[in-house]
Write a structure and sequence with these properties.
273 residues, 2 domains, seven-stranded mixed β-sheet, binds S-adenosylmethionine, alpha/beta, 20% strand, Rossmann fold, three-stranded antiparallel β-sheet
Length: 273
Amino acid sequence: MTDFDLIKLRDFILAKTGIYIDDDKLFKIYKRKFEDFIQKQGFDDFSSFYNRLVFKKDEHLLQELINLTTVNETYFFREAYQFKTLVEEVLSELDGLRPPHESINILTAPSSSGEELYSIAIYIMEYAKEIFYKRDFVLVGIDIDSVMIQKARQGIFNQRSVSKIPPHLLQKYFIKEGNQYKIIDEIRKGLTFKVVNVMDFYAMKKLGRFDVIFSRNMLIYFDEKTRKEILATFHALLKPHGYLFLGHAEKVPVEMEIFKRVKKGESIIYQKA
Ligand SMILES: C[S@@+](CC[C@H](N)C(=O)[O-])C[C@H]1O[C@@H](n2cnc3c(N)ncnc32)[C@H](O)[C@@H]1O
């Protein structure tokens, strides 16, 4: 692949997914990955691959390329102080605001292989029992990576992924199968995981409205323009007074006054203004 080919492919991926691959990673890591991929997919050269991807709009090839490009690092109870804020502060506030028959809807966008949404479910069942028994909860996870969504639906995790879960909760909510940990069906069957691109506004709108959105450790891979567009999408999906949780390295730019920055517990979170 020439440098020109690489940059063309980077621009295409950016337009489709919002993911910006900087020069350093592009030339040091992704060049080799893309070359191997193109060869394994059976193309003789870059131009026949690019032609199939861009002009013939091969959806399967695009999905495989996306699955190769994404960074999916995640684990249970990551930045757990935010889950504590959710159950100790946010849920009780929303419970007071919403009519009693209404469900509390929570979205993780992106969910990767599901650990974040399952962590939220465990926190709610464990530490917000009163609200959990009183109300319905709708928990939805989305990701652009179809392999990760498949994994999330299966609910089987390795030792590294569950290592931050306290032993008594690991025992309560998982079944050990060899070296793996399977989340109990009572939780697994209650959650929904879907392949959705956050850049696809109509697919996002179809998910419904949410009281709380977690979007952690994805926007850091996006350029500033895309970041703002996605934040506006989250704003549109949130119900009045709903909350947005971001990763510790992410924030809503101050000029985006559609969100109010608030400190709750140990977390800085954003409320729909
Ligand atoms: C590092 S993981 C973060 C997972 C989880 N939120 C966490 O903090 O542990 C980033 C995820 O963002 C997903 N992603 C990247 N671009 C996306 C897009 N345009 N739409 C939906 N998901 C996307 C990737 O597939 C990847 O699984």
